[in-house]
Amino acid sequence: MPTELKARLDQLIELEGETSQSQATLAFLYLLVIMDSKCKQPLEHGFTLCVRSFLPVGAGLGSSASYSVALSTALLILIGEIPTDFNQHKHRESYLEKINAYAFKAEEVIHGNPSGVDNAVATYGGAKTFMRGQGFKTLEGFQSLRLLLTNTKVPRSTNALVAGVGAMRKTYPLIIEPMLESMNAIALHCRDAFKKSQDKSALMDELEDLVGLNHCLLEGLGVSHPSLEKVRLITAKFGLKTKLTGAGGGGCAVTFIRDDVPQDVIDNVLNQLKQENFDCYQTNVGGTGADAVTLSKDETKTWLLEANRDTLEQYF
Q1: pTM metric for this prediction
Q2: Angle, in degrees to the nearest 10, between helices 173-195 and 200-220
Q3: Residue 26: how many CA atoms within 13 Å on its side-chain side?
Q4: Range name among 1-15, 156-170, 195-209 with the lowest pLDDT average
Q5: Less packed terminus of the chain by CB within 10 Å, N or C?
Q6: How far is Cα 205 from Cα 136, in angstroms, rounded to an integer?
Q7: Contact, 272 vs 251, CB < 8 A?
Q8: pLDDT tens-digit readout, 2-19
Q9: CA-to-CA distance for 46 and 78, rounded, in angstroms?
Q10: Residues with catalytic annotation?
């Protein structure tokens, strides 16, 4: 974002410091400005933007990307650049590309130098592979996985953690570069494990090994945290493999659960994690991407803010 424009937009935000709220507001204003300048018919009326999320903020679960994609989708519909039913349209792919491109711009405002992975997955859904310079591809042979997400509720800054790794890379290039190359090799091996279309048990054997290796490398880069290590110790007692997710430094850990793990074992894990004051979520990886619906007159802002998750998910 141009420095002069950022300074002018900052004056409109009545929040002090770079909080999650101020960054989200800045991203909204930035998208509104650039979209309005490019659309065929500039906005001539006001509107109310109401945002509701069930994702914890700053926990490494892609909450900013989800927000950026939802924001981009809503604004593009508002200015008439895409139809509400874009997912059923013959130009669906071009509409999704446009949503993703603007979502990435919002992510740049919030994070500075994002990879683009989070906003792409939030836009297109499912599972994707990504390499800088090569873009995104659908992960072949992808099978849905059971996950346990644990929010340590320890705040962290993605920018600061990424900058810290960058500083280590400059100071110890002969050490850090091989670690980063090993992490790339882990990602490629994971991709190939899905491609082999092997049975689920054999797939999980490989994924569990890769999860352990990946987390140890991340810890070596200094982006783990005592709270994350505690989650790993607790889940390991039950034979489950866990790694940090997002930028690390707190936030969330993700635990991979085999299909044959009984619910009573998971309940025991949940109890021990909750005793540490962690928040836990059972979920599956892979889902739908960007979508939109038109609400009725009775489905007001108040209704949106008070409706539970199950009610809202029925719309998609």
Answers
A1: 0.71
A2: 170
A3: 27
A4: 1-15
A5: C
A6: 26
A7: no
A8: 877 777 787 777 766 677
A9: 11
A10: 64, 118
Alpha carbon distance, N-terminus to C-terminus of the chain: 33
Which amino acid, one-letter code, is at 84?
A: T
Distance CA 267, CA 109 (A): 39
Q: Identity (one letter) of the amino acid at 237?
A: K
C-alpha atoms less than 13 angstroms from C-alpha of 60 in its C-beta half-sphere: 27
230: tokens are 């505690």
Instruction: Give Cβ neighbours of residue 92 (< 8 Å, ≥ 6 apart).
Output: 86
Tokens of 275: 């005793």
User: Tell me, what amino acid is at 11?
Assistant: Q
Give the tens place of pLDDT for each residue, 16-33. 667 778 888 889 999 998
Residues 271/280, Cβ–Cβ less than 8 Å: no
Which tokens sit at 155?
Answer: 């705040």
Q: What is the 3-state secondary structure (H, E, C) of the chain?
A: CCHHHHHHHHCCCCCCCCCHHHHHHHHHHHHHHHHHHHCCCCCCCCCCCCCCCCCCCCCCCCHHHHHHHHHHHHHHHHCCCCCCCHHHCCCHHHHHHHHHHHHHHHHHHHHCCCCCHHHHHHHHCCCEEEECCCEEEECCCCCCEEEEEEECCCCCCHHHHHHHHHHHHHHCHHHHHHHHHHHHHHHHHHHHHHHCCCCHHHHHHHHHHHHHHHHHHHHHCCCCCHHHHHHHHHHHCCCCEEEECCCCCCCEEEEEECCCCCHHHHHHHHHHHHHCCCEEEEEEECCCCCCCCCCCCCCCHHHHHHCCHHHHHCCC
